[in-house]
Amino acid sequence: MVSNSTPTAPGDRIRRWVLVCLNRACRKAGAAQVLTALRCDGDSKAEIVAADCLGQCGNGPMILVLPDEVWYAHLCPRDAAAIADLHLTQPEFGPT
Ligand code: FES
């Protein structure tokens, strides 16, 4: 996994991790812009992490939100901003 995470303020509890694939296929499809949009619009309690291949190369740009285990595919920066506003601001839900 590539580390290039968003810093958080001391005392903040990370509630979620958002893995953003920046491997070749996703990068070619615009993953860097998705990463930027998530970092600009994201909840400060979600750590946005640049990741290696998530194994879904034909569906990029791909992200995986943990611990929710929610995948998003074929993202554009506008989608990423909506995810930041609508998903990352909600209480987390983990695997059942
Ligand atoms: S290159 Fe992004 S999931 Fe494989």
Give your account of this protein's structure.
The chain is of the alpha+beta class and 96 residues long. It has a single domain (16-86), classed as 3-Layer(aba) Sandwich (Glutaredoxin), CATH 3.40.30.10. Helices cover 27% and strands 20% of the residues. It has helices spanning 24-28, 31-41, 77-86; strands at residues 16-21, 46-51, 63-66, 70-72. A 4-stranded mixed beta sheet has the order 2-1-3-4, covered by helices on one side. Helix 2 runs parallel beside helix 3. The protein is globular and about 30 Å long. The relative contact order is 0.25. Mean pLDDT is 85; it is low at 3-7. FE2/S2 (inorganic) cluster (FES) is lined by residues 21, 23-26, 53-57, 60, 62.
In total, how many domains does the architecture comprise? 1
Largest sheet: 4 strands, mixed
| End-to-end gap | 25 Å
Number of helices: 3
- Globally, the shape reads globular
Arithmetic mean of pLDDT: 85
Instruction: State the name of the first-level CATH class.
Output: Alpha Beta
How big a fraction of the residues is strand?
15-25%
| Topology as a string of helices (H) and strands (E) | EHHEEEH
Any idea what the CATH architecture is? 3-Layer(aba) Sandwich
Strands, total number: 4
What are the bound molecules? FE2/S2 (inorganic) cluster
Q: What is the CATH T-level topology?
A: Glutaredoxin
Computed Rg:
12 Å
Query: Could you say which structural class the secondary elements and strand pairing correspond to?
Result: alpha+beta
CATH homology-level superfamily: Glutaredoxin
Strand order of the largest sheet: 2-1-3-4
